[in-house]
Design brief:
about 300 residues; alpha/beta; TIM Barrel; two-stranded parallel sheet; 14 strands; globular; binds (5S)-5-amino-3-OXO-hexanoic acid; binds zinc ion
């Protein structure tokens, strides 16, 4: 499935799962996010998946104004594919979540394929001290919070971005989400090739067992045949094992501090680029090569960096 032996590495540099007290290396300011994205691209990531944070508190911030400064810098300094989150954070309303993608019309935006529990609270077991007031309630609140992505929410994102030529990183946290994608494909609301990002190891979604990875791929193969491009991400300590498993099966991979703060057991990653370098070594060890941004654009049928709104 790796097209011409090329594997697309996506790097998700900060996200909305981890909080600043968990790692001093988590990018927070626009400058840190831009540097992290550019460093990841230089290390071999063809795609950077981006969230924004409040520079003072590190709280997820989905205002277009928070995205603009790093989008402009990344565009000046790198030809990587920019992918803007529409997931934002589970605390946000759908109208707020779609605004950066609607405003900046990126080549790729994320699209989450189902409502689910999204358990961040187990991280409270190792994180006892917090720098900012919002962090503990944010993690604690995930016990009863739903990451809401109803059919209407998905339709709302698709229709809001419909005229922009943006394609989607379709986040599937369970087998059922593949069937939801199939439903939207049948209705003609998403067009192939589908960039399916299968997510393993989030508490509330499918687990990280090799059988889970296999079943995700088998089901996607059956539903979409050659009409999709498969990518995986493993949360936390599952990041590299899942990437290795999927790369060996011809899949594409996602790494980055959004998904895991670690580079080894008990060892924090100091940069996103470190994780990209590590996964690139795995890919090259298997006899594949990291796709360049231009190769990724061809594989995913993207509109091109000259057609974005930033
Ligand atoms: N945080 C990841 C598990 C999004 O931004 O739309 C999935 C994600 C969601 O990246
Ligand atoms: Zn994300």
């Amino acid at each position: 499935m790796a097209v011409n032996g090329k594997v697309i590495i996506t790097c998700a540099v900060t996200g909305a799962i981890h909080t600043p007290s968990m790692s001093p290396y988590l990018p927070v300011t626009a400058e840190e996010i831009a540097d992290a994205a550019i460093g990841a691209a230089e290390a071999g990531a063809a795609v950077v998946h981006l969230h924004a944070r409040n520079p003072a508190t590190g709280q997820p911030d989905q205002s277009p104004e928070a995205f603009r400064p790093f989008l402009e810098v990344i565009k000046q300094r790198s030809d990587c594919v920019v992918n803007i989150t529409t997931g934002g954070a589970p605390t946000m309303a759908i109208e707020e979540r779609v605004r950066p993608a609607a405003t900046f019309k990126p080549e790729v935006a994320s699209l989450n394929m189902g409502s689910m529990n999204f358990g961040l609270y187990p991280m409270l077991q190792r994180q006892k001290e917090f720098k900012h007031d919002w962090e503990r309630p944010y993690l604690e609140g995930s016990r009863e919070r739903i990451f809401k992505n109803t059919f209407a929410d998905i339709e709302y994102i698709l229709s809001t971005c419909a005229e922009n030529g943006t394609r989607f990183e379709i986040e599937c946290y369970d087998i059922g989400h593949l069937y939801t994608l199939s439903h939207f494909a049948d209705r003609g609301l998403v067009k192939p090739p589908f960039f399916v990002q299968s997510v393993f190891g989030i508490l509330g979604g499918i687990g990280p067992h090799p059988e889970d990875v296999m079943q995700m791929k088998r089901t996607a193969d059956r539903l979409f045949g050659d009409q999709y491009r498969w990518s995986v991400l493993g949360a936390g300590r599952n990041q590299m094992p899942i990437a290795a498993m999927a790369a060996a099966m011809g899949g594409n991979v996602r790494v980055g501090l959004e998904d895991s703060l670690w580079i080894g057991k008990g060892q924090l990653a100091q940069t996103n680029a470190e994780q990209v370098t590590k996964v690139r070594q795995i890919i090259e060890g298997l006899g594949y090569a990291a796709a360049t941004p231009e190769e990724a654009r061809a594989i995913l049928d993207l509109k091109g960096a000259d057609k974005v709104g930033f």
